[in-house]
Amino acid sequence: MIVIVDYGIGNLRSLAKVFDRLRLPASVSCSAGDIAGASGLVLPGVGHFGAAMDELRKRDLIGPLTEAVAGHGTPILGVCLGMQLLFHGSEEGDAEGLGWISGAVRRLVPPDDGGLKVPNMGWRSLIFRQPDPLFPDIGRAWRAYFVHGYHVTDVADDHVVATIDYGGPVVAAVRSRHLMGVQFHPEKSHAFGRALLGAFAAR
User: Fold this and answer.
1) Which 8-state DSSP code applies to residue 57?
2) Residue of 80, 92, 151, 159 with catalytic role
3) Sorting pLDDT into bands at 50, 70 and 90, what band is 137?
């Protein structure tokens, strides 16, 4: 069973609907027992990094998540802010993250002369750095829907699966063994998002 972690932040029901449409078993839960028994975890998130970490602490979820992911090797997919939480910390709220992948989260600052706005909002084409089971058939043009004002930096090259061009490379997808993350919203990315969530469930 895939467990979508409910800590009060993120498009929980939208993600659950995608799994339901794919006829894949998934539940929305904040139960430590459900997290421990999950075949895979999805960590969603929208909004403020510091506030998200506060909610995880308030709900006593950091311990169960760490035990499942770091202790037992349960696969996890971080989505948007959920991906950022996998890293050491963020300028947003000057907050520490879960620290499972080396890297930092900084404000997105595109070049002044490019006419690009922050937040980055809309459909972007993925540029793959390496093949990954999350993205079946990377020979086709993958597009995904983004909404974010911060981005992951200082990530080891071998952890970067895909980027987008937003006045320069911006990390769009990462993997470190069983830890995976996407900066975009698969639940808003139509067929591309369904393909990714299906691949995560079948990994």
Assistant:
1) H
2) 80
3) confident
Cα(11)–Cα(46) distance, rounded to whole angstroms?
A: 8
- 178 is known as an active-site residue: no
Element (H, E) at 26: strand 26-29
Global pTM value: 0.96
CA distance 203 to 194: 14
Report the mean per-residue pLDDT for the chain. 95
Tell me whether residue 185 is one of the annotated catalytic residues.
yes
Confidence of residue 115 (pLDDT cuts 50, 70, 90): confident
- The neighbour count for residue 17, using CB atoms within 10 Å, is 13
Q: How far apart are CA 57 and CA 92, in angstroms?
A: 17
Catalytic residue among 30, 55, 148, 187: 187
Quote the CA–CA distance of 182 and 131 in Å, as a whole number: 14
Catalytic residue list contains 92: no
Cα gap 202→183, rounded to integer Å: 21
Q: What is the pLDDT of residue 136?
A: 87
